[in-house]
Amino acid sequence: MAIITFTTDFGEKDHFVGAVKGAIYTEMIDAKVVDISHNVSPFHLHEAAYIIQNAYSSFPKGSIHVIGVDSELNIENRHIAVFMDGHYFICADNGIISMLTSEIRPEKIVEINIHDRFVSNFPVLDVFVKVASHIARGGTLDVIGKNITEIKQLTGIRPVISNKGYKIGGNVIYIDNYGNVISNITKKLFEEVGKGRKFEINARTAKFDKIYAHYSEAINFDLPPERREEDGKKLALWNSSNYLELAVYKSSSKTIGSASSLHGLDYRDAIVVSFMD
Q1: Given this model, what pLDDT does residue 101 score?
Q2: How far is Cα 154 from Cα 128, in angstroms, rounded to an integer?
Q3: Which among 7, 105, 139, 242 is least buried, having the fewest CB atoms inside 10 angstroms?
Q4: Beta pairing partners, 174
Q5: What is the C-alpha separation between 106 and 158, in angstroms, rounded?
Q6: Which residues contact 178 (CB under 8 A, 6 or more apart)?
Q7: DSSP state string for 94-144
Q8: What pTM, to 2 d.p., does this model score?
Q9: Which residues fall within 8 angstroms of residue 254, CB to CB, at 6 or more apart?
Q10: H/E element holding 130?
Q11: Residue 42 class from Cβ within 10 Å (0-12 exposed, 13-18 middle, 19+ buried)?
């Protein structure tokens, strides 16, 4: 039985997550349901896209990923099922999938057309569960939708190269649980544009001229603990997903602060990399 993952902005307080899981088990008592996150900020498409992009590939091929963020059906927000990179994705056509398709070409996309079988204002519970169950039983996408070739694109998720290749203009796309700030600048793009040149990263009050591979790489462990400058150490690094991240070593919003709070950075704020000859 295929794994069904579940990513939403439903939170943990209300009944929604439990109701959807119950509906899945009603369809398939032996289903395997895995929560990725239910704490996506409400209707935050870039946040949802970043989370699913960096989680799905850890699951086995054939896994089915249900994304319940901004999923209400309307004329501008149709429902789609996508087969891509050996995985299935079920969500609204609101741009979330475009962050994945910027790197990987979908093998098949269908616009889901089984809505006339249900009377509900909760499509994740009814429509998405039915589609996920159909796929998990070995069903094809052609049965639940019609082929389409275009999907909605999220704007503002791709960095801009300017000044004849001397600058990459990026933005904050995600702030994690530790207050670390993740940009939309990938290591691949940085290396392609930078070509080994010296650089400076600017983000409001923050400036960096070095990018680490790991958090602890910024700490000199040859020094005794009291001289290591651990707490509050500000750094830039390539995170586990190879995105440029601004962080504070062992950050805590309750004590030393985080990269987001100390630098005054929030979603969509500019992060600029300038290269020098």
Answers
A1: 81
A2: 22
A3: 105
A4: 182
A5: 19
A6: 247, 251, 252, 258
A7: SSTTHHHHTTS--SEEEEE--GGG---S-TIIIIIHHHHHHHHTT--GGGT
A8: 0.87
A9: none
A10: helix 129-136
A11: exposed
